[in-house]
Amino acid sequence: MSKVLDQINKPNDIKLIEPGKYSKLSREIRQFLIQEISKTGGHLASNLGVVELTMALHLYLNFPEDKLIWDVGHQAYVHKILTGRKSEFATLRQFEGMSGFPKRKESDCDAFDTGHSSTSISVATGLAKARDLSGGREKVVAVIGDGALSGGMAYEALNNAARMKSNLIIILNDNNMSIAENVGGMSSYLGKVRTNTKYTDFKGDLENALKKVPKIGDKIFSKLKQSKDSLKHLIVPGMLFEDMGITYIGPIDGHNISQITTALQSASRVKGAVLIHAVTKKGKGYEKAEKEPSKYHGVDPFDIKTGKSLAVNKPRSYTEVFSDTMIKMAEEDDKLVAISAAMPGGTGLSAFAEHFPKRFIDVGIAEEHAVTFAAGLAVGGYHPVVAIYSTFLQRAYDQMSHDVCVSRLPVIFAIDRAGIVGNDGETHQGIFDISFMSHLPGMTMIAPKNEKEFVAMLEFARNYDGPIAIRYPRGAAYTGLSEFQSPIVYGKSEMIFEESEIALIAVGSMVETAVEVRGFLKERGFDVTLINARFIAPLDEEMLHQTVKNHRIIVTLEENVKRGGFGESVSVFLQEHGYTSVTHINISLPNEYIEHGAPAILKIKAGIDAESIVKKVEKVCQGFIR
């Protein structure tokens, strides 16, 4: 039997499918997603949950003329299938393959490059305004999850959207989940709305009854609809969106294509912003993902039958080390508090939450609030640990500067996924945190060389009276050099191997690479010193003064962009002190966004792998060392 999905080969092909086959198409799309993601890894549960919603949107919109903006964007796989990209799924999130997020360079059906949450409504209002200024007629639709509505930017955008005089449609994809279970007032509000059938049942009965009244029934119902003090406001809790000035439709079944299509047609007739509240089930169609949507949000390649990851003997990660150490420290310190921005599982705080539920706070997708909330806790006598991925911490720059550093408050920033993270691409690489944090007055920034030192640094941070950030990479914790573990002294680096000629000064994750580089150079007959920087800010100037005395080449190594990085700080130091006899090689990432792909491949492309570094050093060495 031929597949309905085989008829989808380019944008708008879904419009040629008979309505009676929509159900079969949705099943085939889910089967396709499960099969393909089981091989490549990717975002599974979120995409399984939006199959019918995406189909309805594609039946309603014309691509690429109309604009569809996906908040975050990891749930756009079905959109990619329906715009003719199903043949590219074998390369999903692979180097030079198809991105796991919308990308305008990939297809003109992708209206905006997304990757962080709570942005879609802002983008949509901008596109709608551009349309109006140009006299266009294209439809503009934003899809945002209920978890993303905890981000403050979404409310700023809703406030602006409420003033629009032309059509803009916002789809609230309400699955009661972000990555972890949703928290906070908005989650509670939507829970009441989605379970309140009294209003919708009563409204339907009242409408039918009034319309049966001869001559005056329709007029009475029309007046009721227009009344500001309508039954909707009396029965439905809050009516937040209507009170903001945004027309609200719902809640509707987000897996019922007919209901969604009808809602879209109704919304299109409104001259203003409309929010369609669609209730969906994350992971729908794959039982294991339905039962544990958080676990199957982002997956490695897995066995479909058992649901188990195909990764063999996965080593202990830095995130797991952080998790265990946080619990140990909290047992010793009743003032230690952990804060997450909707990522307790990803940051390793789920176990902490189970052990110390009163001292764990998930603020939702609200990084800015998380940091200032931590500042308040610090002033109140507690010692907060804010655990956020490097790429998401970018959002809280002003709060770190104004609310934490100005007052020198003892807030610990646990920066997970620092450096190249791989398959999620440009929007998720943690390659800017040194640049935007190390220059903040009063901010101390450190990076561990291995698992053992990471534990020691967390203990050091707990006892430090001021803002301090620890950056550490995604994945396996390095266990090498465990025999080298001198006490951590504020502002001081660690000498691992002391020789002459060439000095390697490595930051955090790059210490492991520096060990390889030193081995290659030693084989070639060079004397090589290896220094673990430990402190990014403040810079260990005493160490640099000493290193210059008996080395001709200083090589700094970091997983951060060059501009504003550790290596640039060293260059400035050398210039300011007139050290012209020493050559500095700055091994860092280029000042550009890093695409998706396996970290090992991306490091080679960026020239920060061991072999590339050795070649750069040898080139400089020719002429004055050997």
Global mean pLDDT? 91
Radius of gyration, whole Å:
27 Å
Shape: elongated
Structural class: alpha/beta
Give the uncertain stretches in residue-range form: 227-231, 233-238
Strand order of the largest sheet: 9-8-10-11-13-12-17
Report on the biggest sheet.
7 strands, mixed
Features:
626 residues, alpha/beta, seven-stranded mixed β-sheet, five-stranded parallel β-sheet, 19 strands, 40% helix
Report on the architecture of this protein:
With 626 residues, the chain is an alpha/beta fold. Helix content is 40%, strand content 16%. The protein has 25 helices and 19 strands. The strands form 4 sheets. It has a 7-stranded mixed beta sheet, with helices on both faces. It has a 5-stranded parallel beta sheet with strand order 2-3-4-6-5, with helices on both faces. β5 (247-253), α12 (257-268) and β6 (273-279) form a beta-alpha-beta unit. α8 (197-211) packs antiparallel against α9 (217-226), α16 (367-379) packs parallel to α18 and α21 (510-523) crosses α25 (610-621). The radius of gyration is 27 Å and the shape is elongated.
